[in-house]
Amino acid sequence: MNIEGQVRIPSGCAIAAVISKEGKKMTGEKIIEAMKPMHDRSNGLGGGFTAYGIYPDYKDFYAFHMFFNDRSCRKNCEVFLKERFEIIKSEIIPTRKIPSITDEPIIWRYFVTPLRSMLASHQVDENEFVARTVMKINSEMPGCYVFSSGKNMGAFKAVGYPEDVGVFYRLEEYKGYCWTAHGRYPTNTPGWWGGAHPFTLLDYSIVHNGEISSYDANRRFIEMFGYKCTLQTDTEVITYIMDYLLRRQKLSLQDAANVIAAPFWSTIESIKDIEEKERLKFLRTVFSSLLITGPFSIVFGFNGGLMALNDRLKLRSMVVGEKDDKIFIASEESAIRVMEPNAENIYAPSGGEAVIVKVKDGAF
Amino acid sequence: MLINAENMDFKTLNQKIRECGHECHITGCCGQRFIGSGMMDKEITIDGIAGNALGAYLNGANITLNANAQDAVGDTMNEGTIIVHGSIGDAAGYAMRGGKIYIKGNAGYRAGIHMKEYKTKVPVMIIGGTAGSFLAEYQAGGIVIVLGINSNGRKIVGNFPCTGMHGGKIFLRGNTNDIVFPDNVCVKAAEESELKQIEPEITKFCSIFGYDLKEILNSPYTIITPDSKNPYKQMYVAN
Lengths: 364, 239
Prior knowledge:
- Chain A is of the alpha+beta class and 364 residues long.
- Helix content of chain A is 29%, strand content 28%.
- Chain A has a seven-stranded antiparallel beta sheet with strand order 8-3-10-1-16-15-17, covered by helices on one side. Chain A has a five-stranded antiparallel beta sheet with strand order 11-12-13-14-18, covered by helices on one side.
């Protein structure tokens, strides 16, 4: 696999998501359809999906989705995994041979649980242990990439158009209460399997349309906390920022949104509610290095919900609609209409306005 | 002539529009881009969501859309009319240099960005509802009108309107006290003579969308023009 520095492809993106607030399961077919009217937003160099609630039989185990360059990479990695985890199940992720998807790596799936002895000796909780393991594999084991590591969820990504990637991974066979999707049009970095969206860590996933101007400032800050940016593209850092803010700093989703898409100082100054003003000032001051500048529209997925967010200048399009128990989000309204022709309350959130949707308690 | 656009790509769709006669009715539209781009002498009616850059470079054709539009409606249009019976996405009328856009609902961010005019070519965009932030950013000419119908107490224009504005006019209907304007523009109540200039446009807007003209006119209007004494003063260098 050639990575950034070895290839440059001079070349926007498409995102879409659907979630049932009742936790009702949907197959992947609808979200694949949604990507079709947005075909021209991608250029065939990356497509991917995240599905939540798809592994109910293994919901207590971390589901590692992995790419291996070859068989020896996989064998070495399995030895490493067995030192740290009990592997409950390991299997090839079923795919279809189709002409539009070629040069696939070895694509494998493991359901694992960390060995208690390892947790005790590292003195960390299991989420932290898993996150560290993912970082270690991605940065230290050439030819091995963990591209999904959450419980009862999974990412599926490839080089190709998203509608083909969905067919390739047989997503009609999975049932989830929440799906996110991405079609890639890489602007500065190569199209390779690891570089396709979503970018995930634990159950957190990001699909992103845009380009982060602040990438290196964000990367330098987040790497101080043990995160390693190894996937050669900007979006990865957003996933780690969200993990840092939510899991490690215990911020709320709203607060995290106000960190990465902080309002302008002039806008903060004009706010009359003193408490709100102080909250925004605090977040901008304490986490100034995590402000993400440049154009972005993102959908951030997690177990039990999602959040959609635009950069504060709103340099990318994003539309939200709803129908019954479902909320739809997409770069274009046409994608929402494909999923639900009668979608209601269509609106475009303002720059920096977080749209947070949660599945009702106990329904996922 | 009727064209069913279901599962048709934008290139084929535009080809069919070119091949059909003067009048053309598109059904089942769902996100096809560039519809009617560069066309003249056509009457195009569209059912369904029109894709990005609807009527880009339009050169005299009239387009009526019976739904919402996406981004960049009327990008660089030169002449003609675009009527949207819904809301539109971001950057509507981008660099528009002639013609008219009538929008029943709301406009997204950056409506009227870099509109321009030359002699008799004066583009006009009327937004029935509200407009997002950066309205008429870098406006160099033309007229943008925001009516704020059904704004339900919300600000009719978002943050940072008129940033870098150096030509043209903006008319805002109703209360503008909560809108913060930059230093490079003059903001004042519109006088009767100034309103007379846009009355034909508002009349047309009301007749298209079925509003009561008297009611729409019976409201204070604010006019915003660039402070043209020295529009670049202090913007980039101290001069």
